[in-house]
C-alpha cells in the first residue's frame, strides 16, 4: 500500500509518500507560503535531485493538487497515477479527550475536530483544511487522522488535572493534554527494541527537545505524565516559549504594561524562552556558538534550558519511582552533544554514567551514549513522526476493509 502523509499548517504543507511494503519513502516535500504571492513547492524524490517550483498557491486544495501533479510528473514524479495512493494520513495536533488513538476520517470525526478548534485555534483548522483538500483531490481514498495528544490519553487524573475549580474542567475541558505524542510513542518503542527489552517492563523518560520541547514519563509503554499542558506553553523552556511560570505573573504584567490577552499570549509563546534570555536567537546552534564565544546571555539561556530539562527528568524519575532508560530526540536532543553531556553529568545520583566518546558520535540511528556500567541507559533515538502516521494509517485502513 502507498500512503501519503500530510502535515498541514496554516500557510504550509509537508508531505511524505511511503511504500508500506518496505516502509520506504518514495518522495517527500514541502509547500511554503500558501496564500501568499509566490508559494514555493520543494519536492525531494528519493535518490534524485530536489525540484523547486514557484507559483501562486492560494489555498490547501491547490497545494495538494500541485503535490499530486509533482508526484505523478513524468520527469520528477514517483507514481504512474494518483490512483496508486491508497490512503492518506494526516497529522492533527489536538484530539482532545475524544481521540485516544488514531482514527478514520468520517463525518462524526470531522465534527469532533471542529469542536476542538477552540482548544487548538492555530493548528486544528489547518489540519482540517488539509483533510478537506485531500478529500477533494482524492475522492474515495480513505483518510486517517493521527493526533499529537492521543498517546497521552493514558495519563491518570492526578497527572492531567489542574488544581483549579473542577467546574472549569467540566465546562471547558481545561486539563493537561500534552503534545508530541507520536514522537514520544515512537522513540519509547524504538528504545525498547534497540535494547532488546520488553517495553512493559521499562520506565522510560523521553526528552523531545527541538524548537518546541516536552518530556514524557513512559511506564510499561504508556504515557503517565508529560510536561506540556492544555497547550504547548507549559513545561520546558523552549526556543520562543516560556514554559512553566507562576500564573500570577500573567495578570500582573498585563496590568502593569496594559497588555491585551493576545499580546500576553504572543509574549509567552513567541518572544520568550531561549530568544528572550539570550537576546540573540531561539536556535540552539546559535546559543551554543554564543556560549563558546563567551557571550554571557547565551550562556545563561543555555544553563536555564538545561537546568529545567534536568529538573523534569528528576521529577519523572520520582513520578515512576525510578527510571531505566532516558531518550533524547528531536533537533536539539539528537544533535546537541553539549546539552546531553551537561544533563547527564548531573544525573550521577540516578546511576547515569555518560560515555563521552559515544556521546560525540553522530549517526542517524538509535544508539546508547552511556557506559556498560551505567545503571540507566541513555539513548539518542532519531524521531520519525511521519513513519508513525504512515504505519497507523496503513493499519487502520487495512482493518477497515
Ligand atoms: P521542530 O520543533 O520545529 O520540529 P526540530 O525538532 O527540527 O524542531 O528542532 C529544531 C531545533 O534543533 C533548531 O531550532 C535548533 O535549535 C536545533 N538544532 C538543530 N541542529 C542542532 C545542532 N547541531 N546543535 C544544537 N541544536 C541543533
Describe the structure.
It is found in: Cytoplasm. Catalyzes the formation of acetyl phosphate from acetate and ATP. Can also catalyze the reverse reaction. It catalyses: acetate + ATP = acetyl phosphate + ADP. The protein has two domains: 2-147, Nucleotidyltransferase, domain 5 (2-Layer Sandwich); 196-385, ATPase, nucleotide binding domain (Nucleotidyltransferase, domain 5). The chain is 39% helix and 20% strand. It is built from 15 helices and 14 strands. The chain has helices spanning 60-71, 107-115, 124-137, 157-160, 166-172, 181-195, 249-257, 261-270, 273-278, 284-292, 296-319, 330-335, 337-345, 356-360, 385-400; strands at residues 2-8, 13-19, 24-32, 39-45, 51-55, 85-92, 103-104, 143-147, 203-209, 213-219, 222-226, 325-329, 367-368, 377-380. A hairpin with a 4-residue loop joins strand 1 and strand 2. Helix 1 packs across helix 3 and helix 11 (296-319) crosses helix 13. The two termini are 13 Å apart. Bound molecules: adenosine-5'-diphosphate. Residues 210-212, 239, 283-285, 288, 330-332, 335-336 line the site of adenosine-5'-diphosphate.
Amino acid at each position: 500500500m502507498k500512503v501519503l502523509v500530510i502535515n498541514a499548517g496554516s500557510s504550509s504543507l509537508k508531505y511524505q509518500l511511503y511504500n508500506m511494503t518496505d516502509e520506504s519513502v518514495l518522495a517527500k516535500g514541502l509547500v511554503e507560503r500558501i496564500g501568499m504571492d509566490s508559494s514555493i513547492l520543494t519536492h525531494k524524490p528519493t535518490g534524485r535531485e530536489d525540484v523547486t517550483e514557484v507559483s501562486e498557491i492560494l489555498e490547501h486544495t491547490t497545494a495538494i493538487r500541485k503535490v499530486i501533479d509533482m508526484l505523478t510528473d513524468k520527469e520528477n514524479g514517483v507514481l504512474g497515477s494518483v490512483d496508486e495512493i491508497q490512503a492518506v494520513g494526516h497529522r492533527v495536533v489536538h484530539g482532545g479527550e475524544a481521540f485516544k488513538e488514531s482514527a478514520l476520517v468520517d463525518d462524526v470525526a470531522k465534527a469532533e475536530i471542529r469542536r476542538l478548534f477552540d482548544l487548538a485555534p492555530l493548528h486544528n483548522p489547518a489540519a482540517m483544511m488539509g483533510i478537506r483538500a485531500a478529500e477533494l483531490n482524492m475522492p474515495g481514498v480513505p483518510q486517517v487522522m493521527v493526533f499529537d495528544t492521543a498517546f497521552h490519553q493514558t495519563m491518570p487524573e492526578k497527572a492531567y488535572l489542574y488544581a483549579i475549580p473542577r467546574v472549569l474542567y467540566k465546562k471547558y475541558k481545561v486539563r493537561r493534554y500534552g503534545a508530541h505524542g507520536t514522537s514520544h510513542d515512537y522513540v519509547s518503542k524504538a528504545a525498547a527494541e534497540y535494547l532488546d527489552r520488553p517495553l512493559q517492563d521499562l520506565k522510560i523518560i523521553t526528552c523531545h527537545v527541538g524548537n518546541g520541547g516536552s518530556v514524557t514519563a513512559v511506564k510499561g509503554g504508556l504515557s503517565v505524565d508529560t510536561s506540556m499542558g492544555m497547550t504547548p506553553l507549559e513545561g520546558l523552556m523552549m526556543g520562543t516559549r516560556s514554559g512553566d511560570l507562576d500564573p500570577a505573573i500573567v495578570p500582573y504584567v498585563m496590568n502593569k504594561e496594559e497588555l491585551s490577552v493576545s499580546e500576553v499570549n504572543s509574549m509567552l509563546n513567541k518572544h520568550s524562552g531561549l530568544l528572550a534570555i539570550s537576546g540573540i536567537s531561539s536556535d540552539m546552534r546559535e546559543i551554543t556558538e554564543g556560549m563558546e564565544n563567551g557571550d554571557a546571555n547565551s550562556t545563561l539561556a543555555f544553563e536555564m534550558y538545561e537546568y529545567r530539562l534536568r529538573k523534569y527528568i528528576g521529577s519523572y524519575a520520582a513520578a515512576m519511582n525510578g527510571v531505566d532508560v532516558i531518550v533524547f530526540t528531536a533537533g536539539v536532543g539528537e544533535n546537541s552533544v553539549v546539552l546531553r553531556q551537561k544533563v547527564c553529568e548531573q544525573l550521577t545520583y540516578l546511576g547515569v554514567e555518560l560515555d563521552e566518546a559515544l556521546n560525540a558520535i553522530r549517526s542517524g540511528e538509535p544508539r546508547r551514549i552511556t557506559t556498560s556500567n551505567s545503571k540507566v541507559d541513555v539513548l539518542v533515538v532519531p524521531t520519525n513522526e511521519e513513519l508513525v502516521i504512515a504505519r497507523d494509517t496503513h493499519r487502520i485502513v487495512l482493518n477497515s476493509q
